[in-house]
Structures are given as structure tokens and as C-alpha cells.
Amino acid sequence: MLIGEVARRSGVSTRMLRHYDTLGLVRPTGRTTGGYREYSDADIERLLHVESLRSLGLSLRDVGRALDDPGFAPDALLERMIQDTEDRMAADARLLDRLRQIEAADADDWSAVLDVVGLLRAVHSEYAAHRQRAALRAGDAGLSAEALTDALLAESDPNTAGALRWALAQTSGALDQLAARVADHDPTIRRRAITALASIEDARATAVLEGALTDPDPEVRRTVARALGRRGVDAAVDVLIELVAAGDRDVEAAETLATYADDDRIVGLLVDRLGGDPDPSVRLRLVQALAEIAGDAASKALTDLGDDADETVARTARAIGSLRSP
What we know:
Blueprint: H1 3-10, H2 14-23, E1 30-31, E2 37-38, H3 41-55, H4 60-68, H5 74-104, H6 110-122, H7 128-141, H8 145-153, H9 158-169, H10 174-181, H11 187-198, H12 203-211, H13 218-230, H14 237-246, H15 250-257, H16 263-274, H17 280-290, H18 296-305, H19 311-324
Antiparallel strand pairs: 1-2
């Protein structure tokens, strides 16, 4: 088959067929009596193999190796191609997100569009000071809740994160964006989302926080329990008591428990959980927690602990109890 016929049937241009010949990738094995290239059936089959491999994104060099090198192993090449493809897809996804964020800002002229683009770049700057300044301007510039949430959940600088939380609190749709990230597989993302939700005094935010009380990450549970405790939500009480028992930010947990209105109930739950613990350090934390709670129930519990078998626990309970005496 002559080159023109091969080009017509295969869809590969004569120019590319000659290029393949020059590279040694697909060489016609025959010549006509007039000296023209003539492709055999085996040559056509090889050409189809070349085009198939090229359709996967292989370079001509890799195609030649794959077809001619008996020791060629495709695993590493395929792994590299998969990674390159995933990287391109991720870059395209980031670009699409950026375009949607610009669209959501509802900029009505090119000057406003460029301002939004500049802010979107600045909130992801490598310099924390630049990110913080952009966060403080973000609300006025109309950055979307999605754009601000993305920036916040990627932010490691506490001052910039605070500025982004402030901007988010003024932005419509912030709660929905944050709530969607509470189930993220990355605990760091969940921690940042929960911290932002904890600053939103809203019934829906409270409901989302309650759902996160069983999060597998201890820092998330601590943050949620303290936030709900400050709102007087009963569901947080057991978690706060466990924090006291474990010595995990126990002072903060005890202070939060002291804010609940029903002192007698809180004291009863603390004593039931910690009072009979065989570890004296746990009973000592109970004494310290009771010190934060006013009322007769806490005073009586301290009196009882004044007879504890551990001298440190007993002495501490008596000392705190004496300070509460009228």
C-alpha cells in the first residue's frame, strides 16, 4: 500500500508518516519498482499500534521504546502518566474553582474583576502579611463564601485565620460552606472548619457542632465540646467530663462545666464518673473541677473528698473547701 493510500485509510497525514519513517518508528518495508514507499500489512499494524499508544499521551520516544525494547516495563511509565494526568486534572479543577469564585463576586467591569483576581491571589500568597491584608479586604470586595472558606481551611497562620473567620462571618453562605467541610477526611481541615463554626452563634451551627461530638480526632472533640458547653448544650457535658477525667485540657473543660446553670446535676455527674476512680490523679482533677463550681453540692463533695485515701487529694480538697467556708 502506497503512502497516500495509508494516509487516507489511517487518518495519519503523509507528513507525519514521513516523520515516523525518519525516526525509524514506522518504516515501510517495501518499495515499488519506481522507488516509492510501500507499506506491508505488518507495517500498517505497527502504525495502528503507534497511534493507539499516542492516544494515551505517550511521547514518540516512549512509543518507540514500548514497541522495540523487549525489556520495556510499562508499569513505571503508566504510573507516571497517571500522575501527570491527575496533576493536570487538579490544575484544571483549581482553575475552574477560581473562575467560579470570580463569577460569584459579581464584578461588573474589568477593574472590579482584576481587583477580585488580585485578592484571590493574595489570600493564597506565600506571605502571611499579604494573606492577612487580603482577608481584611475580602468582605468589601465581595469574595464568595466558597473562596473565603478555601482560603481559611488552607491557612496555618493564626492571625490570618482570624481575619478570614471575621470575613466569613459577614458573608452569605458561610455556614453551608463550613458545614460541608466538617466531614473532610483530613483532620486539620475539620479542626479549622469546626473552629470557624464555633464562632458562629446560630442554631444551625450548633446542630452541626453537635454532630461532630463523636469525631475521631480528639482536638475536634475538644473544640466542639467547649463551644457547645459555652452555649449550655447538654450533649457536650459527657465529653467535657471525659476531658477532665483524661487530663485533656481539663482546666478548660472544668471551667466550661462551671458555666452550666444546673450546678447540682453537673456535680453529681462529675462525682459519679471521677469520684470512685482508683487513680488518685483523676480524683485530684475532680477536686480541681469542683473548685470551679459554686453551690452547696460542690462544697459537700469537697468535704467528702477531704477524707480521701490519698493524702494529696484529701489535703487539696480540705484547702479548697476552707476557702469556700463563709
